[in-house]
Design a protein that fits this description.
Blueprint (H helix, E strand, L loop, with lengths): L4 H7 L12 E5 L8 E7 L5 E6 L8 H6 L2 H5 L6 H5 L5 H15 L14 E6 L4 E4 L5 E2 L4 E2 L5 E7 L3 E6 L4 E6 L5 E6 L5 E6 L2 E5 L10 E6 L4 E10 L1 H11 L1 H4 L4 H11 L22 E10 L5 E6 L16 E6 L5 E15 L2 E14 L2 E4 L8 E7 L4 E8 L6 E8 L5 E2 L10 E6 L4 E7 L10 E7 L4 E4 L10 E9 L5 E10 L17 E12 L15 H11 L3 H6 L12
Antiparallel strand pairs: 1-32, 2-3, 3-4, 4-5, 6-7, 8-9, 9-12, 10-11, 12-13, 14-15, 15-16, 16-17, 18-19, 19-20, 20-21, 22-23, 23-24, 24-25, 26-27, 27-28, 28-29, 30-31, 31-32
Length: about 575
């Protein structure tokens, strides 16, 4: 008998052999032949889903540039066959070694500009059958007869599959430079760190920031039916950035580097005297680009995706005139009435104990944005921090608050109505379980994730949940799946008005090389790994609960398997997906 995630859940709590199941079907988003790990972003009312891939299979490699840039020389000892690599003949192991090395250099500022640039993240819009790339500003390569696979693009939301919005880097290009000693270096650079965009009919249109210094900074998170896009953008910057730009423009102070590289280094190395949290990059967990001032932004588009107006919203407080700290405000969602929600930082820093340890953190509070005003929505004295993530057309808002009932701070889901002021704080799957609301539909159903395993203090496994505001009931989405499901829903990201859900699921599959070929170990077997994949949950019209039976002699084995299989999708995300590919000598 194949053990299921539902069986594991039961084994950890009771020897009883019944549970709820079979009211939802699970369909993997059709990108599993593109990458082994992929992550849900959103689902729209037409059922289109937006998904981000991590470390894709078979990215294109510029063999000549591998040789010219010194990559092969510097990694020669790690190849199975150096001679074959120089001729462009890559074994599964050597191809994986090359891609893993390029990905590592591409995400490390110190080495990011001398080798071919590969992005670890790309985005797709999908139905249940096909997946179309959202390239952002990635350039078309004549060499590869494909996109260059260089630009990181975070597509985050869609409208009926016709408009897709998110954030993208600028295209990368090669810049030849001869230094004062006559040495030639080819830099691989781009001129835009992050810009919001909307993709309409395959055309990428940029949503600019108010301050366009060094091409500005902006990000987009959601779009409503009135073609209003929300996110954040740079409205100002500290004086030190102007000083750095001036230094780049003078040969004596710039040093023996091209001015373009100098400008790019400012973008990477800008600093300030504050804690982080200046600029949010949620997909990789980085909340800051210190030294710039970021504000919640609403772009009004026309039917062709062109920007008609741009409105920025202030912080929830007014900083002192001489305070250059990198405060931020962020809008993450907007309803059809044009009310946006998100968070604003405060001029307060607290010493907080999280499960991972103590740290100083700048505080922020959940806010709404409407008619030019930023409004705090929850009692500040009840929470350490808070953040609003999603809003529906009835002005119900969800997100999370940070509380520390037992001295250790954990997030807890909240639901709040902007009209009535009613606030709900649903309990997670056990007392003081960490939980977050991620999405809400117009049926007043919230989805999100809650810690599920109370037997450990850190790196707790999570399950996706559904919370009915009117019934005030939280349901583990895994209890709604068929008994023989091979998926464990670890996080629910969004839900549309048909109650279709986009979620992340843990799925056990064989290890693969970057070529997509399964790894074979010394025993002739393919090792099995836990992966995270995006799945679409579709309600069954006549779905009924099932009874899932577990033989008593298998209960201990189920519990053991569950403990060994726990994994966090965000941990995978933060590692850049590099663990998706194993380098194994045979």
């Amino acid at each position: 008998m194949k053990l299921t995630q539902l069986a594991a859940a039961m084994a950890m709590t009771t020897a009883s052999a019944s549970a709820l199941a079979a009211t939802y079907t699970v369909t993997p988003v059709p990108v599993r032949d593109i990458s082994i790990n992929n992550f849900a972003q959103s689902i729209d009312e037409s059922g289109f889903t937006v998904t981000m891939t991590s470390a894709e299979f078979n990215p294109p490699i510029d063999l000549d540039f591998l040789e010219e840039s010194g990559f092969i020389d510097n990694n020669a000892s790690t190849f199975e066959s150096e001679d074959d690599v120089r001729q462009g003949i890559f074994s599964d192991v050597d191809y994986t070694t090359i891609v893993t090395g390029l990905l590592s250099h591409s995400t490390t500022a110190r080495n990011a500009f001398v080798y071919q640039h590969l992005t670890p993240y790309r985005s797709y819009i999908t139905d249940t059958t096909d997946a179309d790339l959202i390239p952002g500003l990635d350039a078309w390569s004549e060499l590869f007869d494909d996109y260059a696979h260089a630009v990181t693009t975070y597509a985050r939301d869609s409208l009926n599959g016709d408009y897709v919005t998110g954030s993208t880097e600028g295209p990368y290009y090669e810049l030849d430079y001869e230094d004062e000693d006559g040495n030639d270096t080819t830099y691989v650079l781009n001129d835009i760190k992050s810009t919001a965009f909307v993709s309409v009919n395959g055309e990428t249109k940029l949503l600019a920031s108010e301050d366009d210094t060094l091409n500005g900074l902006s990000q987009a998170f959601a779009i409503n039916n009135n073609l209003q896009v929300v996110g954040n953008s740079m409205v100002d910057h500290i004086e030190g950035i102007d000083d750095a730009i001036e230094a780049c423009e003078e040969e004596e102070t710039r040093g023996d580097i091209p001015v373009e590289y100098c400008y790019r280094s400012i973008r990477v190395d800008a600093s300030s005297d504050t804690s982080t949290y200046g600029f949010r990059l949620p997909a990789v967990g980085d909340r800051s680009t210190p030294g710039v001032h970021i504000r919640a932004t609403v772009w009004q588009l026309d039917a062709n995706g062109n920007t008609i107006t741009t409105d920025t919203y202030p912080l929830v407080f007014e900083p002192d005139a001489d305070d250059e700290s990198a405060y931020w405000s962020l809008a993450q969602d907007i309803n059809d009435q044009g009310i946006a929600v998100g968070a604003s930082s405060l001029d307060e820093i607290a010493y907080i104990r999280r499960p991972s340890g103590y740290s100083y953190e700048r505080l922020n509070v959940a806010v709404s944005y409407a008619e030019g005003e930023t409004t705090e929505m929850l009692p500040r004295d009840e929470n350490i921090m808070s953040e609003a993530v999603a809003i529906n057309n009835d002005n119900w808002v969800t997100g999370y608050v940070l509380r520390a009932p037992n001295d250790t701070a954990r997030n807890r889901v909240f639901v709040y109505n902007l009209d009535t002021g009613e606030a709900l704080y649903p309990e997670g799957f056990f007392t003081n379980a960490g939980s977050e609301g991620k999405g809400i539909n117009n049926n007043n159903i919230v989805v999100g994730s809650s810690e599920y395993d109370s037997t450990v203090d850190t790196n707790r496994e999570t399950h996706g949940f559904m919370y009915d505001i009117e019934a005030k009931e939280m349901t583990d989405l895994n209890d709604l799946l068929p008994c023989d499901s091979v998926y464990t829903i670890v996080d629910a990201i969004g839900i549309n008005d048909s109650n279709e859900i986009i979620a992340n699921a843990r799925y056990r599959t064989g290890e693969r090389y970057v070529t997509g070929v399964e790894v074979i170990d010394d025993e002739g077997e393919t090792p099995i790994d836990d992966t995270i994949i995006a799945v679409k949950l579709t309600p069954l019209e006549n779905g009924e609960v099932e009874t899932c039976d577990i033989p008593e002699d298998e209960i201990d084995d189920v519990a053991y398997e569950r403990k060994g299989a726990a994994i966090s999708p965000w941990w995978l995300l933060l590692t850049g997906g590099l663990l998706a590919f194993r380098r194994r000598k045979q």
